[in-house]
Design a protein that fits this description.
The protein has two domains: 183 residues, Up-down Bundle (Growth Hormone, Chain: A); 192 residues, Growth Hormone, Chain: A (Up-down Bundle), CATH 1.20.1250. The protein is built from 17 helices and three strands. A hairpin with a 2-residue loop joins β1 and β2.
């Protein structure tokens, strides 16, 4: 397959992620669902939290499945589960059904689909790992920008239940069509004229790690921690943006709601920009810079009262939040090789699910205890500053001593050469 065709696969991966990223538009449904079904906001929000938690587990399962069957069957199953889960959500009239359809079935489809473009495209683009994974997950971050206005219009015209049914059908078709393009490159594939740079050689994995071997290194847990800490910081803002803006800057609810679109733009663009930059200055440096920037931004957030400045700082924090998701797949691939990155990075995404519960709960708890957001922002400033220690300590793992006992797909792990 030539270089032009790999860009076709990349485009399909981006469109798949845009459809999956519609999950970030969940806030659009909170009030309509509450009014239509009689649930409170906390009960409706739980469905989103379950979906993100299941996403992490399903991404791990999808990575293992891809190792045996390739990306296409996993992506096709994602289309069915995600679309069906969303359609059935429109017919859910009790909380158990809501959590099962949107949280479990839809979340499983999200996780299976999310890992496919990432694990597939790092194989097609060894020359642009950071850029291509950033581009893929930028689609996920931008999903709310596409979905939110369409969902609002549909809710106004046909009601919230029918809106889920229509969107679910669209998701099923889009993800299914994109899934047909997903395939791994030929064994030993390299783009025409590609020669790894000195920086790429220095950061490359010494051999292809298996999942068990990767989990036997301290570096995997350090990467998990870095992703968890970065996600906790950003998702704390995502979960509280409108009420925080109203309280701090005394703006109207409509004005505060405008922050949702703004931070969605930051989330999507940060996934690409930071990942692209990581190809040039290194993944460790990117995480170090992002944690430092967030520490300053949270410190300033604890003091501001103007809506424009608050929005600007939130935008900066969400740029870094997106940057973590854009950069980490390439970071993990650098350390452990592309061979089993689907399962290795898939299980790392449990950090996302944990942060989705921990971050909002932390901020809400401090806000409840103190009566304001200032102390929560100070805590997050300290946490992100301390988090910068993690990338400072990171070094590429050495080949495990037991590697002489293993052979993966013809790769002699002890020597890192094909046999």
């Amino acid at each position: 397959m030539n270089n032009n065709n790999r860009w076709f696969i990349a485009a399909a991966g981006v469109f798949m992620q845009v459809a999956l990223g519609a999950v970030y538009a969940w806030s659009v449904f909170r009030i309509p669902l509450s009014k239509a079904r009689g649930w409170n906001i906390a009960e409706v929000t739980t469905a989103f939290e379950i979906a993100i938690f299941v996403l992490g587990l399903a991404a791990f399962a999808g990575g293992l499945w891809m190792k045996r069957s390739g990306p296409r069957p996993v992506a096709l199953t994602s289309a069915v589960l995600y679309g069906l889960g969303t359609i059935l959500t429109g017919r859910a009239h009790d909380l158990t059904s809501l959590y099962l359809t949107y949280g479990v079935i839809g979340g499983a489809g999200l996780g299976l689909g999310y890992i496919v473009p990432i694990a597939t495209l790092v194989r097609w683009f060894p020359d642009k790992r950071g850029m291509i994974t950033g581009l893929a997950v930028a689609g996920f971050g931008a999903g709310a920008l596409v979905t939110a206005p369409a969902a609002n219009a549909l809710i106004a015209s046909v009601g919230v239940g029918r809106t889920f049914e229509v969107l679910g059908l669209v998701y099923l078709v889009v993800v299914f069509v994109c899934a047909l393009a997903m395939q791994n490159p030929p064994e030993g594939y390299a783009p025409a004229g590609y020669a790894p740079s000195a920086a790429q050689i220095a950061s490359a994995a010494s051999h292809e790690f298996t999942l068990r071997q990767a989990l036997g290194t301290w570096q995997w847990y350090a990467l998990w921690l870095a992703l968890f800490l970065n996600t906790t910081a950003g998702i704390s803002i995502i979960s509280q943006a409108p009420p925080m803006a109203q309280e701090i800057s005394n703006v109207s609810a409509a004005t505060a709601a405008g922050m949702v679109g703004l931070i969605s733009i930051a989330n999507g663009s940060g996934r690409f920009l930071w990942a692209w930059l990581s190809d040039r200055i290194g993944r460790r440096n990117v995480f170090l810079i992002m944690f430092g920037i967030q520490a300053v931004a949270f410190l300033l957030l604890s003091q501001v009262h103007q809506f424009a400045l608050l929005s600007t700082l939130a935008f900066v924090i969400l740029l870094c939040y997106g940057g973590g998701f854009g950069t980490m797949p390439a970071f993990a691939t650098d350390y452990f090789g592309p061979g089993q990155i689907g399962s290795i990075y898939g299980i790392m995404l449990t950090a996302w699910g944990c942060a989705a519960v921990f971050g909002p709960s932390l901020v809400a708890g401090i806000r409840q205890a103190t009566g304001h957001y200032r102390d929560a922002m100070l805590w997050l400033a300290v946490a992100t500053l301390v988090s910068s220690v993690v990338p400072l300590l990171l070094r590429a793992p050495r080949s495990p001593r037991s590697s002489r006992e293993f052979r993966i797909g013809g790769l002699d792990e002890a020597r890192g050469v094909r046999t």
